[in-house]
Amino acid sequence: MTERKRVIVGVAGGIAAYKACTLVRQLSEAGHSVRVVPTESALNFVGAATFEALSGHPVQTTVFQHVDEVLHVRIGQEADLVVVAPATADLLARAAAGRADDLLTATLLTARCPVLFAPAMHTEMWHHPATVENVATLRRRGAIVLEPASGRLTGADSGAGRLPEAEEISTLANLLLDRSDALPHDLTGVNVLVTAGGTREQIDPVRFIGNRSSGKQGYAVARVAAQRGANVTLIAGHTVGLIDPAGVDVVHIGSADQLHDAVTKHAPEAHVLVMAAAVADFRPSHVATSKIKKSHEPGHTTDAPAIELTRTDDVLAAAVRARSDGQLPNMQAIVGFAAETGDANGDVLFHARAKLQRKGCDLLVVNAVGEGRAFEVDDNDGWLLGADGNEVALEHGSKTLMASRIVDAIGAFLQRRDG
């Protein structure tokens, strides 16, 4: 049995403290031993009893409680991960200054595990030079400071500074427990364009041709790249129940033609294109303006309607051609995805190698598909093929873990080009 990880959830005194309750529950349900260390002001928003009930551990806020246990040292020393959510401007300032005036800041000084801050504050506070400098200081020391989400803040205000949803924070926390080096802030200044999800090609106002893509892998790549410092635009097709990643500009589309137009619009500014979307290969040549009736209804023939199909544009191949023609001067890396099955002619890798050569992209992520594999699941595995002939197996794990390996490969590819 896998050893339970010890996770400390620090909670600072902001209105978003209520979201920490969901975060604690999600981390506990993932099998971790979770202990909540709030600031005294955080308890003005959520009572200690709530955190104790959710975590199963007592809650203390000062170094003068249970002094005989030396909690301000022991909690940090024993932790596998510390997550602070919300991390207010005040908490970030105290952490950057190395303050130790309560149990949470003392824990941050003694922790030698990964530390993840999830900021939450008004936009003006997030962009204030003092906060910007404090965030830079913490990142330089090795802490992970997430980019906040944009949206409704306290009162009528909206903008950057909203706490990411608990699901997003717990996803990144679990990634850090899988691999502590998953979120270096190493892609600052890199513009990354990601496509995700399936397209829907209309047959009539009711029906469409689609596929089983959930968009989870593309969303995971966008999320990881953004938290590693990249400027990310996500072009999202059909997805179900996915949260738009914090710090990412999201463009929602429906059809393959719309995806082609969106990529064409955004690609000239991108340094990296990640084509994770499952784009329909065919669309109906004619879209009915009214619902196609069942054949047994009065006034209709008994024959099933014939639907003539035409090929859609190959968005990945078009991007490769555009780069070769000098139309994408900023584009340094193009990453394709291949969902393959073996057949009488060859196995999954045989077809993937042929696709890599045919498409002309720099990297190709390969998934073997089938029942319970690749589509509509949370875990995945596969291979990463390079145009230089390099092939790396991607171990089985969460799609966020796989995304981190893909972003690693993109970062290494960019470094080789720069070198």
UniProtKB/TrEMBL annotation:
What keywords sit in the KW lines? Decarboxylase, Flavoprotein, FMN, Ligase, Lyase, Magnesium, Metal-binding, Multifunctional enzyme
Q: Where is this region: Phosphopantothenoylcysteine decarboxylase?
A: 1-191
Q: In which pathway does it act?
A: Cofactor biosynthesis; coenzyme A biosynthesis; CoA from (R)-pantothenate: step 3/5; Cofactor biosynthesis; coenzyme A biosynthesis; CoA from (R)-pantothenate: step 2/5
Copy out the cofactor comment: Binds 1 FMN per subunit.
Q: Where is the DNA/pantothenate metabolism flavoprotein C-terminal domain?
A: 187-411
A GO term for molecular function: phosphopantothenate--cysteine ligase activity
Which InterPro entries does the protein's record reference?
Answer: CoaB-like_sf, CoaBC, DNA/pantothenate-metab_flavo_C, Flavin_trans-like, Flavoprotein
Record carries keyword Lyase: yes
Q: Where is this region: Phosphopantothenate--cysteine ligase?
A: 192-419
Q: Does the keyword Ligase apply?
A: yes
Q: Which GO terms describe its cellular component?
A: phosphopantothenoylcysteine decarboxylase complex
One protein family per Pfam: Flavoprotein
Instruction: Tell me the cofactors it needs.
Output: FMN; Mg(2+)
Q: Which GO terms describe its biological process?
A: coenzyme A biosynthetic process; pantothenate catabolic process
**Known catalytic reactions:** N-[(R)-4-phosphopantothenoyl]-L-cysteine + H(+) = (R)-4'-phosphopantetheine + CO2; (R)-4'-phosphopantothenate + L-cysteine + CTP = N-[(R)-4-phosphopantothenoyl]-L-cysteine + CMP + diphosphate + H(+)
Residue positions binding CTP: 281, 291, 337, 355, 359
Q: What is its EC number?
A: 4.1.1.36, 6.3.2.5
Q: Which positions fall inside the Flavoprotein domain?
A: 5-169
The task this protein performs is described as: Catalyzes two steps in the biosynthesis of coenzyme A. In the first step cysteine is conjugated to 4'-phosphopantothenate to form 4-phosphopantothenoylcysteine, in the latter compound is decarboxylated to form 4'-phosphopantotheine.
Q: Which NCBIfam families match?
A: coaBC_dfp (TIGR00521)
Q: Which family does it belong to?
A: In the C-terminal section; belongs to the PPC synthetase family.
Record protein name field: Coenzyme A biosynthesis bifunctional protein CoaBC
Q: Which gene encodes it?
A: coaBC
